[in-house]
């Protein structure tokens, strides 16, 4: 039995039943699984079992408008990539950035949400200050950068990270745990979107220990998409795209 088949799917699920089944085109029989992470403010499980957030809300609305059904499952990011790029069945990951490598191994929806520009969350004793450039931050060799393995931070930052000496520290934990790694002294800074930085600083203890740094040279943020494997029918994804609201800019 393969490793993919042996691993148990995480238990938190929320079924989105298509409230709009009577509207428009007939429902498709396929029911993909939409994998998400607990990542405020983009996606988080609510008390009633539904999934909310800046990426989850437009996805849920598009499913409802299009009369499509999907099962939602809370799944770590590396597991999501394995299922989308190598696994069997119908799988989509919520809120993924688009890049050429991923496009070669799956297909993307239209944009769910456009992030605000990237900045950094840094320890209070860090030398990094708002107004520096991304290149200047990457050149600070004594400041240990923490990145999430398998993530893309957009083409520009991905290039700078790949060229950085020393190489950054990597982890598979979620962003709240990454912030706590900074607080514990295991790294100096991490890259975050403005929305996520604001949400993280609401977590107990984080605002007192970490501060936000804005970069002077960051372009508009990346767009977040559904990232689906090739087994998800093109007709399903086309219906989803047609029903999507315009992304926030």
Which strand-content bin applies to the residues? 15-25%
The total of beta strands comes to 14
- Class of the largest domain in CATH? Alpha Beta
- Poorly predicted segments: 1-27
Number of domains: 2
The average pLDDT score comes to 87
Q: Identify the CATH architecture of the largest domain.
A: 3-Layer(aba) Sandwich
Number of helices: 10
CATH homology group of the largest domain: Periplasmic binding protein-like II
Q: Outline the biggest β-sheet.
A: 7 strands, mixed
The percent range for helix content is 25-40%
Determine the CATH topology of the largest domain: D-Maltodextrin-Binding Protein, domain 2
How many angstroms separate the termini?
45 Å
Shape: globular
SSE pattern, N- to C-terminal: HEEEEHEHEHEEEHEHEHEHHEEH
Overall radius of gyration: 19 Å
Structural class per helix/strand content? alpha/beta
Structure description:
By secondary structure, this protein is an alpha/beta fold. It has two domains: 3-114 and 223-243, Periplasmic binding protein-like II (D-Maltodextrin-Binding Protein, domain 2), CATH 3.40.190.10; 118-214, Periplasmic binding protein-like II (D-Maltodextrin-Binding Protein, domain 2), CATH 3.40.190.10. 29% of the residues lie in helices and 23% in strands. The protein has ten helices and 14 strands. A hairpin with a 5-residue loop joins strand 3 (44-45) and strand 4. Helix 2 (56-66) crosses helix 10. The model is unreliable at 1-27 (pLDDT under 50).
């Amino acid at each position: 039995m393969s490793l993919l088949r042996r691993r148990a799917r995480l238990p938190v699920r929320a079924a989105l039943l298509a409230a709009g089944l009577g509207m428009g085109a007939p429902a498709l029989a396929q029911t993909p699984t939409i994998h998400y992470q607990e990542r405020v403010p983009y996606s988080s499980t609510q008390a009633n079992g539904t999934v909310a957030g800046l990426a989850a809300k437009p996805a849920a609305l598009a499913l409802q408008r299009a009369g499509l059904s999907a099962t939602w499952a809370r799944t770590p990011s590396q597991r999501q990539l394995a299922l989308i790029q190598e696994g069997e069945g119908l799988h989509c990951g919520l809120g993924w950035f688009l890049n050429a490598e991923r496009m070669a191994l799956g297909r993307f929806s239209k944009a769910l949400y456009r992030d605000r520009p990237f900045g950094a969350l840094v320890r209070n004793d860090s030398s990094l200050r708002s107004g520096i450039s991304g290149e200047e931050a990457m050149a600070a060799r004594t400041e240990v950068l923490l990145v999430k393995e398998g993530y893309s931070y957009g083409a520009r930052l991905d290039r700078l990270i790949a060229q950085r000496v020393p190489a950054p520290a990597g982890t598979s934990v979620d962003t709240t745990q990454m912030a706590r790694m900074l607080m514990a002294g295991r790294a100096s800074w991490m890259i975050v979107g403005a929305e996520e930085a604001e949400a993280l600083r609401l977590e107990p203890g984080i605002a007192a220990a970490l501060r936000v740094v804005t970069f002077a040279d960051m372009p508009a943020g990346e767009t977040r998409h559904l990232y689906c494997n090739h087994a998800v029918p093109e007709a399903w994804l086309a219906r989803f795209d047609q029903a999507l609201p315009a992304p926030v800019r």
